[in-house]
Design goal:
The protein is mainly α. The chain has 2 domains: 15-107, no CATH class; 111-261, Tetratricopeptide repeat domain (Serine Threonine Protein Phosphatase 5, Tetratricopeptide repeat). Helix content is 69%, strand content 2%. The chain is built from 15 helices and 2 strands. The protein has helices spanning 27-36, 48-56, 61-73, 77-88, 93-107, 111-124, 128-140, 144-147, 149-165, 169-182, 186-195, 202-211, 216-230, 233-244, 247-261, and strands spanning 15-17, 22-24.
Amino acid sequence: MSYDLCLSKKAEKPYYIEHIRTGVYTLEELCFYLYHNICLIDETILNEGLCDWIRDELGLTKLYRQLYERLEKKDGAAFFVLPIFREIGYLSPQELREFQEQLTRLEVQSEDMKQKLRGDYLVREKMFARAIWEYGQILKRRNPGKLGTQFYAAVLNNMGAAYAGLFQFERAASCFWESYGMMKTKETFRKYVSTLPLFLSDEAYQEKLKEIGADTYLVQKIQEYNAKLCRQPEFTAALRRMCAREPEQVTEELKEQYCRSTKI
């Protein structure tokens, strides 16, 4: 048995959301996306196209006029989004205030910072290719004097994580090494050393360690730490669950995840 909890009209044609490469059919679905993806709220969704969709597909003429007026006045994302939530009472008054405060704080950030937050969110959602694109845009217009070396080191570090999610380990290692060159943190060095064996032979790995002058004791500690991570209960439990399932089902799910992660 299933229940349709949508109170508003369902559109015949969906509104396509570029960041997640999917469409929404109801105002409830749109509100769910906006509320749970605050870092992704930008001009790619808050535009005339959304206004027209709300008028033409959902028949909400009054809301359409409200939103179009907000666009013309350039009031900002917070003032644009709130009428959408209020239309169906999606959030309580307290939740509305908290959401508005969050979005307002986000709006005053620099474009680079907002783009980094989008990239970080996409990495958490395993949409790695899109995250890499976001990080790449930041690095193209890099201005260390504006946000500082630490910011760009963090961008490179997270870009490395995104490449690793796509199994592009050589590119991941390159990002980690560049990040480490900017901010010599132990964690970034650990990621770099840990990534090397994933694409280098044992001989090439040892040569690379010599080339960078890696401390033998430190490398040993990194290897011990990684081995400990692999023995953690949650890791071994997840591995057992995967092994207990049908190989075909696991393969199909992994294919779907990989296709989603590689969409730009």
